[in-house]
DNA sequence: GCTTGACCTCAAGTCGACTTGAATTCGTAG
DNA sequence: CTACGAATTCAAGTCGACTTGAGGTCAAGC
């Protein structure tokens, strides 16, 4: 049986052992057994961790992520709720697109104060339009 | 002079007074004067707050946001860095798009375990490809 | 002139997501 | 068989972004 111990999972996923233990604590992932004291993880955990990383990128809290793709890949939430989260994501994508464009404008526009540049104002307004709460967001502390 | 006091700014922006004071503390926004004890804000603060909201949505830390659009709308960062942030945003947008598609797939696919569904796996892989740290993300506690 | 309500300051508390550290236990290589 | 390194548990600490609460100030309307 090709089980992975925590260091292996950490190396392959980039998630620290301490974080993996924490994820197991809160029931976000599960180890399949123990070899002595050591947790043994199945290979599917790597895919789950990718999903978790995506969820965090989108600003979902860990408990929301758990609800979206249950421990075994089973959707805990009703379809409608999932679609609603997808809709949130759509809005967020629009917001980020506008922010990206605004950022590029700021980088390139020679005007001294953007606050008075009509292009700038329009970009910001566009962004503001559809920004209704993406449910929640949490920390993503970056890989040091 | 049509200055706004903190309650007015709060009402128009949806940002709580306590948060506005905090933003001023850390130099993210500035009030133009005082009327007695009361802070008076210029109208431009509303636009700034939109920008701040966008930045938070994207997961930028407050100090990063401050650096991107200086207090007066002056870009504190060199163009290259701004473009790099825009690139980060692009990657993030791709990730979120993949997550959105994955979510819709999970909502609609009748398979009992997605972990074995090839469509699902492909979506997750696609998402994993270009997800290199959006710099940092922080809390967005939602409007209660 | 007095009340009222919106504002003020400052210190301390909260929350999620981890990290850190100390003390301990394994399993494998030599 | 022993030493070593990798893993374990558990409590406590950290960080950013605010919020909360106590106690105080002020200007406008009656």
Description:
- Two copies of one chain form a homodimer.
- By secondary structure, the first copy, chain A, is mostly helical.
- Chain A folds into two domains: 4-73, Multidrug-efflux Transporter Regulator, Chain: A, Domain 2, CATH 1.10.1660.10; 79-131.
- Helix content of chain A is 56%, strand content 6%.
- Chain A is built from six helices and three strands; from the N terminus they run βααββαααα.
- In chain A, strands 1-3-2 form a three-stranded antiparallel β-sheet.
- The longest helix of chain A is centred in the middle third of the chain and has 30 residues, at 79-108.
- Chain A is elongated and about 65 Å long.
- The two termini of chain A are 33 Å apart.
- The interface between A and B is large, with 61 and 61 residues.
- The first copy, chain A, binds a DNA duplex (30 and 30 nucleotides) through residues 5-7, 16-19, 21-22, 26, 35-39, 61-63, 138-141.
Main features:
homodimer; mainly alpha; Multidrug-efflux Transporter Regulator, Chain: A, Domain 2; 2 domains; three-stranded antiparallel beta sheet; 56% helix; elongated; disordered C terminus; DNA-binding
Short recap of the structure:
Two copies of one chain form a homodimer. Chain A is mainly alpha-helical and 144 residues long.
Which blocks of ≥5 consecutive residues of chain A have pLDDT under 50? Answer: 130-144
CATH class division of the largest domain in chain A? Mainly Alpha
Strand order of the largest sheet of chain A: 1-3-2
Q: Could you say how many structural domains of chain A there are in total? A: 2
Architecture (CATH level 2) name of the largest domain in chain A: Orthogonal Bundle
Q: Could you state the order of secondary-structure elements of chain A as H and E?
A: EHHEEHHHH
DSSP strand content of chain A: 5-15%
């Amino acid at each position: 049986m090709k089980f992975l111990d925590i260091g292996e999972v950490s190396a392959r996923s980039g998630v620290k052992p301490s974080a993996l233990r924490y994820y197991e604590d809160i029931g976000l992932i599960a180890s399949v057994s123990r070899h002595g004291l050591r947790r043994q993880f199945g290979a599917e955990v790597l895919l789950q961790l990718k999903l978790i990383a995506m969820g965090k990128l989108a600003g979902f809290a860990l408990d929301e992520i758990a609800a979206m793709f249950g421990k075994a890949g089973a959707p805990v939430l009703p379809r409608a709720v999932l679609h609603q989260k997808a809709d949130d994501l759509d809005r967020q994508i629009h917001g980020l697109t506008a922010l990206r464009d605004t950022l590029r404008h700021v980088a390139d526009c020679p005007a001294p104060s953007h606050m008075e540049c009509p292009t700038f104002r329009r970009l910001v307004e566009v962004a503001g339009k559809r920004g209704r709460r993406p449910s929640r967001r949490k920390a993503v502390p970056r890989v040091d």
